Amino acid sequence: MRYSAIFAKTRKTAPSDEATINAKLLVQAGFVNKLMAGVYSYLPLGLRVLLKIENIVREEMNAIGGQEVLLPALHPVANWKKTGAWESVDVLFKIKSRTGKDYALGQSHEEVITPLVRGYCDSYKNFPLFVYQIQNKFRDELRAKSGVLRGREFGMKDMYSFNLTQKGFDKFYEKAKKAYLRVYDRCGLTAKVTEASGGGFSEKISYEFMVLTEAGEDDILYCENCDYCVNLEIAKVKKGGVCPACGKGNLKKARASEVGNVFDLGDKYSKDFNFSVLDKRGQKAYPIMGCYGIGTTRLVGVIVEKYHDDMGITWPEAVAPFKAYLINIGDGEKTGIEAEKIYNALTEKGVEVLWDDRIKVGAGQKFADSDLIGLPYRLVISPETIQKGKIEVKKREQKEISLMTFTEFLKKIG
Ligand code: ATP
Ligand code: MG
User: Whole-angstrom Cα distance, residue 180 to residue 281?
Assistant: First the structure.
């Protein structure tokens, strides 16, 4: 893509109304734009990142048997009254129509998916079933000061599992936890799995996936020796204490951001919606449900919190909006022609390249924008590189610069 064609460009300075690094950098570099607190537009560069994250999530959910759907965001009040959530969920956005009717904006989708699946699955042969979607959620959050980490409208992948046996459910629950860790790993993040209580509606154990970052809104205790980790809010153990799991390490306190979680819902929702089938032995069974969330837009922010330096973002390759930032400097016409050749050749080879083809912008600003936007590679074409028949290549997070031919560069990036 040509940078001149992207309408949303970098800004000279970071926005003064943002407190967090993720929002400052994402806004300044032209990835997102704030409409109001907790509500952001995704601009061409930001959308490419979000779509890459969504595709990683999609691949991993498909790999464990998930079927993708897209559910409505606007819900009838009756479904929310049936589960008690109309009264008990404080973040639920309630809408009054001019007809006097009430509606809810989806903050999660148990209230929609359960009656939906009930309408199609009336035999034990329909189970197990795993359904997910990637969609915007709406929540009346009191504080929305953490940039894209906490939105009032935000992206989430939510999956719902339906099993007729506890054993089947337990097996899938474990499988989903592993798939989650693969998602974070592919996004360049290390997530710790914390045990937590199952939210307001059950005594069951749920698991949260936490990435250590000062920008997060959770405090956790983790063992420096093993994988043990708990949310401080509910923990019976104390900071500095001996790990109850391995008995060796001490528990350290850290700030973290919750990038996903999995809940055992039991039969709460299937009972609320009177959803039962006859199992293999002809006995009435209420499907055991689980729900599995990943904050896709929160992930964009957490990645920026982890991957940046003084000059801008340093995207991990798997989620970078483009692989390389191509700049031509000096002797506009000649280097422009050469850069266009390289741009076309790379594009033809399937390499995603952003060509800063702006004519009246100086080299200094192009280099600064390249660092701010933070693509994995910077490619420079100058009269000297043309003379040598080479391209100047620099990795975003490294200092050293090397000269290589087009073919050598292709080989380097595999
Ligand atoms: P939190 O404790 O951060 O409010 P939650 O327990 O309410 O999260 P869920 O309802 O289970 O979270 O939502 C699933 C995932 O969606 C979370 O793990 C998180 O990654 C993301 N998420 C939740 N609320 C928000 C929000 N307001 N903005 C952005 N992402 C969110
Ligand atoms: Mg919440």
Answer: 34
